[in-house]
Write a structure and sequence with these properties.
mainly alpha, Arc Repressor Mutant, subunit A, Four Helix Bundle (Hemerythrin (Met), subunit A), 2 domains, three-stranded antiparallel β-sheet, 3 strands
Length: 239
């Protein structure tokens, strides 16, 4: 891994997890001190992150972490639905037995981690397994572009989902792991229409839960967690 790749991975990790707050200026001197890297790899990393819309560049002001808003969150999840439902249909048409086995393994791994409590309840391990499950569903779609958009949009929505996970807050009456299981079952049965319906409903539920948190419908503790994670409301989004 080159220095530029290391800088990119470190910055991206800290942005997605809120260690670098939304709207925070990203001054090269500060980043050099934080990551122990030179200006050149850091600048290259920032340009890559700008292409992913995680960082913004402003004339005469340099880079800053992209702001978050209710409208942006809803748009990113709606776009995920468009991209991933198409990819899922293609994956179901193209997938092999090995692909199906991979879905079963990814679902089992996710459910095992989700069931852990106390010191074993590692949110970052849970998030990694969640990503692996959703990626496993789509991998045989045959389109590198669809998979690239999946990765970008997953990252865009992860910035909103992480504070919800940190507080273990879920929408009332919603069983997330049951949703994953139903989605996997329909996909394994190669019922494309049902799988797409489950995937759409799953993401719509996530969008509704995040929107409730962002508009202050959940507890004050949730708002504090989001602020602590670096989620700062844009003018149109009040917590």
């Amino acid at each position: 891994m080159t220095l530029a790749e290391k800088a990119y991975a470190s910055l991206r990790h800290d942005i997605l997890r809120g260690a670098l707050a939304a709207g925070k200026p990203l001054r090269l001197a500060d980043l050099k001190a934080r990551y122990g890297m030179g200006f050149s790899p850091l600048r290259e990393a920032l340009n890559r992150l700008q292409a992913e819309r995680l960082v913004l560049a402003e004339a005469l002001r340099g880079f800053r972490v992209a702001s978050l808003s209710l409208a942006e969150m809803q748009d990113s999840i709606a776009t995920r639905i468009v991209i991933e439902t198409q990819a899922l249909r293609l994956a179901i048409a193209n997938g092999t037995d090995a692909w199906q086995a991979g879905i079963v393994a990814a679902l089992y791994s996710l459910q095992q981690q989700a069931a852990r409590h106390g010191p074993d309840a590692d949110i970052w391990q849970l998030e990694a397994r969640h990503h692996a499950f959703h990626r496993a569903l789509l991998e045989p779609c045959g389109s590198p572009w669809l998979m690239e958009f999946f990765e970008r949009l997953y990252a865009a929505t992860e910035r909103y989902r992480i504070p919800v996970l940190l507080q273990s807050i879920q929408a009332t009456g919603r069983d997330i792991q049951a949703e994953h299981a139903a989605l996997a079952e329909a996909t394994l049965a190669r019922d494309a229409d049902l799988a797409v319906a489950f995937l759409t409903r799953h993401y719509q539920g996530t969008a509704a839960a995040i929107a409730a948190a962002m508009t202050g419908a959940m507890s004050g503790a949730m708002s504090g967690a989001m602020t602590g994670a670096g989620i700062v409301p844009a003018p149109e989004a009040a917590f």
